[in-house]
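Anyone up for a design puzzle?
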């Protein structure tokens, strides 16, 4: 299992994972756009040349926002999400000192993962995400990446 920067030719595999992993996947155009943006850092996790997950960060000055983290559902629950999160955080530019993200209040797996990797909750965005019955809140989390690097 290794992490490398995503390339445009990975798009098909990333789209497959996006559509399998998320209840409300991004449109194709959003994912494609991400792969073309120089201020976004997109990483894929590979095992024997097959992409098993990806992470996308937006980086501005000394802050990054984790826009997307997804693991192919066929291999979820085996520790790959944690490896992908850890390794991608540790290869962000040294100038990045803080990382932010939003996560659905109902996403117990992702919340557990982030909190156990030292993210802390700093707020709530009301009615941020669609759900079948209406909207649900997002929790806003922050990581002190400088401290995380020295663990
Ligand atoms: C979130 C995601 C990336 C995690 O990847 P994964 O490979 O399944 O995660 P891991 O196997 O590394 O497990 C991470 C932790 O979640 C825990 N976990 C698994 N299912 C859980 C559940 N239902 N409730 C709480 N914790 C759970 C695991 O036990 C593990 O914690 P531990 O190491 O303390 O035991 C993956 O589930 C995914 O792609 N989900 C869909 C997309 C998504 O929600 N992305 C996050 C958006 S913010």
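Challenge accepted. My sequence:
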């Amino acid at each position: 299992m290794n992490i490398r920067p995503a390339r445009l030719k990975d798009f098909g595999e990333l789209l497959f994972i996006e559509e399998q992993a998320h209840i409300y996947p991004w449109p194709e155009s959003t994912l494609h756009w991400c792969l073309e943006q120089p201020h976004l850092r997109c990483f894929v996790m590979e095992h024997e040349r097959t992409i098993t997950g990806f992470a996308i960060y937006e980086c501005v000055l000394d802050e990054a926002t984790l826009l997307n983290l997804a693991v192919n559902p066929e291999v979820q629950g085996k520790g790959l999400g944690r490896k992908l999160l850890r390794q991608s955080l540790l290869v962000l530019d040294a100038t990045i000192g803080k990382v932010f993200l939003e996560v659905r209040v109902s996403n117990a797996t992702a919340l557990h993962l982030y909190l156990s990797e030292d993210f802390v909750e700093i707020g709530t965005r009301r009615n941020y995400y669609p759900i079948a019955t209406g909207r649900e809140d997002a929790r806003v989390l922050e990581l002190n990446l400088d401290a995380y690097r020295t663990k």
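A detail worth pointing out: The mean pLDDT is 97.
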